[in-house]
Here is the input.
Amino acid sequence: MDSDATHRVLDPERDPAALKALTHPLRLRLLGLLRLHGPATASELAARTGESSASTSYHLRVLAKYAFVAEAEHRDGRERRWKAVHAVTSASNAAMLATPAGRAMLVLGRRRQVEHLQQSMEQHEADIDAGRLGEEWHDASGIDDLMPRLTPESLRELRDAITAKLGELTARDEADPRARQVVLLTAGLPLAGEGPAAPAVDAAPSADAASAPDSDAAPLTDGAPGPASEAAPVAEAAPGADAAPEAGRAR
Here is the structure.
């Protein structure tokens, strides 16, 4: 998928420095905060992250150097405000895996996404305990751990279908005051098994298995609700497409 106004696709061969810039955890968090909450100053971001304004200012300039952020409209002209340039950043898995440096960055990005899921789960549980989420969200939310047997073509089709449906639902709910930020972290990670035709591995029982008995999930991630989950990991893209996969279904 080519870059557009909301989605930037990085090429490991043409954009190695830009990809490397995203390996710094504070830069990822700053980018996630701008994507989630909108334009902010270095001082405002420092207050959110517990960093010094000198540190956030430096890392924002690095992000700006590689066109991940840009100056936003200033309120009073005294301090720069920054905004995210794109809603999503992705790179081709195949291209990333072709070089040691690309592979290292891909692994780092995936590890960061897993951390993001853990932080988001903790925030979700805290929001339920504090009564910040109504009962109408209880049945709709959850995590499914599923392990279907699929061909590469079917897995790609599944990921594309989920991405398309997500775009449709996001557009439909944009103006609905009941809508909340939802962390949707999905994966499609094939396992080689022990032989050329290894049987399907039984997944551990899921707390939400009854609500989605035989389905799997796929991709998407960028920003998320709550202070504990304001990461902006690089989304993964299979052979030249978009996405940020993980196996199991995060609803």
